[in-house]
Records
---
Amino acid sequence: MDIFPILKDALEHGASDIHLAPNRPPMMRLHGIIRPIRDDYPVLTDEDSKALIYGILIDAQKLRFEENYELDCSYMVDGLARFRVNVHMQNDGVGAVMRLIQSKMPTPQDLALEDSILRFVNLPHGLVLVTGPTGSGKSTTLACLINIINERRKEHILTIEDPIEFVYENKGCVVTQREIGAHSKSFANALRAAMREDPDVILVGEMRDLETISLALTASETGHLVFATLHTSDASQTVDRIVDVFPHDQQSLVRTQLSCALQAVVCQTLMSTSDGRGRVAAREIMIVTPAIGTMIRDGKTQQMYGVIDTSSSLGMVSLERSLEKLVKAGKVNEKDAIAKANKPETLALYLAMKKTGERGAGKR
């Protein structure tokens, strides 16, 4: 089998991910659901799967995979698309997941980004975190913001990614993109070197460990605007995750640093639309005000939700209010929204109050 028609078929369907593995046909994720790419594709053998996957790797990548049993890289088909690729060894052979990276830069309209998120591009310095589970569109949201900065400012943007996803043209800014594995040994090494590379804006693909988090925090304190991602589901959990990475005797200092450097947290999740023809993002937005900064410094992160939920005038929104809005607009099903909520009981209460209000208005 040739991998090109597999990729082409999946893209023509509008797939976001392609899955290759032994003992099943080539599969794709379409609008959040895994299904075969085509009904007439055969089940792959171990040899088929390995041949398809090795066909997109260069010799150095094959050696890295055979040494580590896993590999992250990117792959481009001229005139078709770019993919973020994870190759892995599993119980029945070599498998891979290929995530489509759109060649067209996402716009705020494409992503329905809130105005409060768009204002982050005007920040002179500080730390902005976009969080959520794998596949929630974090990289796409950040690419949109970085592209706007690239168009509006005249500075140096440095991205540190694993692997490089969206490729930026030099517009108003000079853009330097570095890939872990190909251009640096680790996020920590690349961030340490970044301080000597005259960046104004730094994109960190993922804050994975204590050293990377510490360096990103330091960079945001020293006059740089730093965007980064974490795998957390709400703003309070994000703050706690960062603090908990550090030894206990350093956590008080880290809370103080974070209360000053952190500018905003956006926690997002993707869900299928009610018509099954696409996906839409629900987002929790926390902007660090003096009140929230005090809660971070004092370790009272559990109180942040109440401030977020009652500060819509400042551009904040809780995930439950975001989901409520999507249900009210008919974009997502109520059942799916409750399943995605961090506080299902709270969302159920909001939706019940909405229904009660509608019935009361009908009686009048």
---
Amino acid sequence: MNRATTDLKAEMKKSIEILRTLRDEVRVQVHLGGMDAKKRWDALEPQLRAVEHAAQEATDASRKLVADSVKALEDLRSSIGKELR
């Protein structure tokens, strides 16, 4: 395995850890939040499983998929936090 592949796999592993942490935080916030947040979560959650699977391939496409998913979760977490305030 070359260095670029090793670096990409390490980056993907770290990104998946972030994704899982965000997923758990959003899951708790959705439980406390309203129906709109629940609908958005229900649409996003199945995609997260696909992202975790794609990340195992460690390609540029999977890197973008993970980054996009992390952004979507951060946005959802942020909007839920605003709803609860």
